[in-house]
Amino acid sequence: MDKNHVKRGEGRLKFRLINYRSDMQFAFFRGGMMAPQLAALSPIIRVQNPNEPLQRHLALTGDNTQMMVQWVTKNSSNPTVKWGTSPGAYNHRAAAVSSTYSRQELCGPPANDAGFVDPGLFHAALVEGLTPGQRYYYVVGDEEWGFSPEASFVAAPPVGPQTRVKVLAVADLGQGEVDGSMEQSEMLVSLNTTARMLQDIQQHDFHLLVHNGDISYARGYVTQWDNFMHQMEPLVSSVPYMTTHGNHERDWPNSGDRFIEAYDSGGECGIPLERRMVMPQAGRDKPWYSFDFGPIHFTQYSTEHPFHPGSEQHAWLLADLAAVDRSVTPWVIVGGHRPIYIASTFNMPDQGDQPVAIALRAAFEEAFVEHRVDLTLHGHHHSYQRTCPVNDNRCQDTQQQEPAPTHSSSSSSWHDARSFSSRRRQGGPPRVIYDAPAPVHLVIGHAGADLSLNVDLNPPDIWEVIKLWWGYLRIEASATELKCEVVSDMDSSLMDAFVLTKPQGWGAAHMQQRSAKQQQQQQQQRHAGEGVPGGVQAGDVRVAEQ
Fold first, then answer.
1. What region does 544 belong to: left with phi over 0, alpha with psi -120 to 50, or beta?
2. Which of 62, 58, 79 is nearest to 70 (CA)?
3. What are 252-306's pLDDT values in tens digits?
4. Among 296, 351, 454, 507, which residue's beta carbon has the most beta carbons within 10 A?
5. What is the DSSP letter of 365?
6. Where would I find the beta strands (DSSP E) of 91-204?
7. What's this model's pTM, rounded to 2 decimal places?
8. DSSP β-ladder status, 67-73 and 494-501
């Protein structure tokens, strides 16, 4: 606004408005935030089509011949998706199932108070009979209110080591206003991150986006969810968008999360995320699930729900890892929100970074090593951090190599000024890790929220890279390589790059070894039951893992 507006008694501002499915009005206040006084109201702004299909987004179901297509309207009664293999030719259609949530379902303020407006109806339609890897064109809406512009997606690729895939991953993203206005909760940097990820999707054939908690930072305000989904729609209407719960979606006292007194969701207690983004989860308020994508098995779980041994989620996660056929998906990536390893000084009981990390390691680390999990992706701490392959706070890898550079990994001075690591690897070629016996753990909570400054400035030797700058993760996987690049949101320069590798045929050898081990255990149990002294010795069955 012109700074002379006070003298002239008039001024002009431009705002970006999106369709909130209801009429709107501007109010002008004097007196600032401390003593606001209503001075003027604009005419009412009418919404021409409250049932315009908006906020389109996709999700995998666990079956790569399916895609869940989702969108929102005010109250349309016959929501439908139409699709086909050619632009404008929609030979198939499916009706959607609709849901919403009420003020009464939410757990506390502001979600059930000042932050609540009608969220509309959330529609989810199952597209079936897809050919893996085929591009499909689709529209959503209904005959009465009209259909959306056309969008397209590529069906999930064939599952197996023969497939090469490219994946994007973030945590702690949020949303921002493009018109410069201020609002209850916004992360302006998220605009850069989403713009660069959209470029990767459109120009570099990335076909999946994983978001591990702290999604919109709406924290009880429905319109913040609308703003976030408007920002994300160009990305997630063209690639499946798989989410997990973070503290800012789920936590509220006495609502079923694992914390004693956490108010981080603003009273949402997980309901808006669960209704808005249908995931192939175990059940209501059980947001853990897994899916296969090419040569990768993704196991997604909730650090906000009970995960201790004996809990339902703990039993599910261990069973999921035990059931993975590594000859089909040689790579296993586990994702959640709060990190299992973290270079942070936040030690507050119950919710502190370190107490939660210790609890996660006590619950899962042994299983992660036993089942050869390759990589974990967490957020919560707003930084980028990477460990060596680690078990019990010790580096486990013995085969390393620094090859000739294959791509640029230059960093800006800003990145270097905010870099901390025990091994102090600034720039240079990507780190290559051969057949690691334990997971590499990443913290990728640097997608948009304000950076966390409580970094341990003298971290243990397990930490190879710690950086305070915003960005996101790119993954490219084949049967024998899992390439990871961490990209700056500022200029797309590489903040980090590393490669995990496996020998050809690793998956089949691993499954053979696992089968032999299980047979050996069964024999020991039979002999023990028959009273045979000593049972079967470990040397009786030997299958080398390659």
1. beta
2. 58
3. 999 999 999 999 999 999 999 999 999 999 999 999 999 999 999 999 999 999 9
4. 507
5. I
6. 92-95, 97-99, 121-127, 135-142, 146-147, 151-154, 165-170
7. 0.91
8. unpaired
